[in-house]
Amino acid sequence: MDIYLFTRLVVCWALFAVLLFPLLLKVTAPYGRHATMKWGPVMNNRAAWVIMEAPALLVFVFVFLTGNGQKNTLNLVFFLAWVVHYTHRSFVYPFRIRNHRRKMPVVVMLMAFFFNLVNGFLNGWYLGNAAAYAFPGWLFDVRFLAGAALFAGGLSLNWWADNRLLKLRKVLQPGEYIIPRGGMYRYVSCPNFLGEIVEWGGFALMTWSPAALSFFVWTVVNLLPRALDHHRWYRRKFADYPSDRKALVPFVL
Ligand SMILES: NC(=O)c1ccc[n+]([C@@H]2O[C@H](COP(=O)([O-])OP(=O)(O)OC[C@H]3O[C@@H](n4cnc5c(N)ncnc54)[C@H](OP(=O)(O)O)[C@@H]3O)[C@@H](O)[C@H]2O)c1
User: Fold this and answer.
1) Is the Cβ atom of 192 under 6 angstroms away from ligand 1?
2) Inter-CA distances, 21 with 14, 27, 105, 222, Å
3) What pLDDT score was predicted for residue 132?
4) 103 CB under 6 A from ligand 1?
5) Does 189 sit in the ligand 1 pocket, CB within 6 Å?
6) Alpha-carbon gap, residue 82 to 63, rounded angstroms
7) Which of 85, 83, 76 is nearest to 59 (CA)?
8) Tens-digit pLDDT profile for residues 57-116
9) 55: number of Cβ within 10 Å
10) What number does the ligand 1 atom closest to the CA of 175 have?
11) Does residue 178 line the site of ligand 1, with CB under 6 A?
């Protein structure tokens, strides 16, 4: 595939996300606390997480390693950043989820599987084939430095916030929830989603890759509506929910 065809594919993929956005603002994604039986057959939650997230790791690694672009140190840094995130998401995070009785609709798993397949392919192809980082100086470029800092900060926030929730889940009954408190939970209902968005925004900046930019767009399109849904749900469920806490962006949204 040449880079022009690739770029057109990425643009279509990002436009698809933008078109879906109004729909996702209206329809609550039916997994986790919003799970319902209305979306057809359901499956084991843990298995669903592994199956739907693994393509983002496996396809990415395969396409990157078989790509015929130059593999310099920076490409390998980006490769490692992706692999760290997705090894955790596909093979560590699912085994830390405690809510064994939780089910996920098969259709949700299939949609996420497809998304991760395409996303893993596009990002692996770009980093494995386009020698965009061959030019000298990128390591000290402000885009690389700022992007790397955002990626590391976003990943840390995402892991910290997920960890906080998983610890709560450990001591609660299935289906029981409490208000998370402390750290970034003082400011927003979903710091895990905020961290994920910042992380992939940073990745797009540091790789200067159209594929990573499309992934950033998708992450916002997926997680902003989910954060709004969680936030409304918390406010309905807990009369004492902190009124100054926002959904996703401190003091703003
Ligand atoms: N890049 C993307 O497009 C994308 C898309 C989706 C998810 N993700 C990432 O995947 C991870 C998980 O997403 P998610 O939507 O499943 O997150 P979530 O709804 O916040 O749930 C995370 C875990 O914490 C538990 N939990 C949440 N709030 C709780 C509370 N108040 N009390 C007790 N337990 C609570 C949940 O249990 P229950 O299941 O019982 O609610 C679940 O096991 C996040 O890091 C997210 O950023 C990324």
Assistant:
1) yes
2) 11, 10, 21, 8
3) 60
4) no
5) no
6) 13
7) 83
8) 999 999 999 999 888 888 899 999 999 999 999 999 999 998 777 899 999 999 999 999
9) 22
10) 40
11) yes
